[in-house]
Amino acid sequence: MKMTWRWYGVGNDDITLDHIRQIPGVMGAVWSLHDKVAGEVWEMERIQEVADVLASKNFSPAVVESVNVHDDIKMGLPSRDHYIDIYIDTIRKLAKVGVKVICYNFMPVFDWTRTDLYKEHPDGSNALFYEKALVEGATPKSIVDRILEGAGEKTMPGWEPERLSHLEQLFEGYKDITEDVLFENLKYFLEKIIPVCEEEDVKMAIHPDDPPWPIFGLPRIIRSREHIQKFLSLVDSPYNGLTLCTGSLGPNKLNDIPSIIREFGSRIHFAHVRNVKVFENGDFIETSHRACDGDVDIIEVMKAYHDIGFEGYMRPDHGRHLWGEEKNCRPGYGLYDRAMGVMYLLGVWDTLERGVK
Ligand code: CS2
Ligand code: MN
């Protein structure tokens, strides 16, 4: 297992590579060109620039999260071929600097969805929170406005204001897209890109839908064991793989994450590990990584990875905001709770390595 850390780039993240290299065991920085919107060309010079910065601090550039997929590809519009060509161009360029895994998602319109970015825990820390009834009774626009207002200046990946300003148009475009059609469109995309990935030795790793159920009438297709199985069979190649995110699958308690890891382990290239606490009414809040703080049994998750001999990349996912850091950090991406998360995950892992059951 190779421990990594999501880093937003020079001048775009208060947490610097010098901070990150003091966290024990982190060998790679998970990066992206965060100013690029889906469908834009990634210039080789920009890619090389990041690779050089990472190399200067001894971090591997092997994982990119994300190269976002244009909505025209998800909707299956005629213009999709143009955007797929650009995607392929990006895969080839990333391969040149040693990228081995590309994380992406296929969620219509929204990446992750929450109703609060700074919900307070009893200990005074705060974290991302999802209030189920609020989403069910609200319009997408009101949820977007609520979140963007909470986020202030801090833009979040997948929530680019340019895109969300076309919200009505986007919803219109998705009105006839059922789960089956979305799966078809994903298959079309994969059939074009996976042969290139095989040639370039870059593994694709789809991120599950967050939360793991349909919202606002939009289909969501990566949210359970059955969906994952169907996804993997669309193109049966090791290059067509998964980012297994425990915090995204976790809010649906029917998802048995350790057993999903054991079943599909050889196709998991990137592990996102975090914990969530799920309430009776379906609301959920993000917690520390510690197993007993939430409803995802992180120790069983790590055991499953250990048992399958997982050699892929892992990172702590979102953390709570602590000690006032929410004033500066990106929602979910502060320093302290994620650093403690790394230590917790490595603590469990090192213990397993010693053969202690
Ligand atoms: C991430 C996702 O912050 C997060 O929740 O795990 O936004 C992830 O980067 C994307 O879904 C991948 O495309
Ligand atoms: Mn994740």
TrEMBL record:
Keyword field: Iron, Lyase, Manganese
Gene3D superfamilies listed in its UniProt record: Divalent-metal-dependent TIM barrel enzymes
One GO BP: D-glucuronate catabolic process
EC number: 4.2.1.8
Enzyme class: lyase
Family matches, as SUPFAM superfamilies: Xylose isomerase-like
Known pathway: Carbohydrate metabolism; pentose and glucuronate interconversion
Reactions catalysed, as given in the entry: D-mannonate = 2-dehydro-3-deoxy-D-gluconate + H2O
GO molecular function, one term: ferrous iron binding
One Pfam family from the record: UxuA
InterPro entries in the record: Man_deHydtase, Xyl_isomerase-like_sf
Cofactor(s) in the UniProt record: Fe(2+); Mn(2+)
Family from the record: Belongs to the mannonate dehydratase family.
Purpose: Catalyzes the dehydration of D-mannonate.
Protein name stated in the entry: Mannonate dehydratase
Originating organism: Petrocella atlantisensis
Lineage of origin: Bacteria, Bacillati, Bacillota, Clostridia, Lachnospirales
Gene name as annotated: uxuA
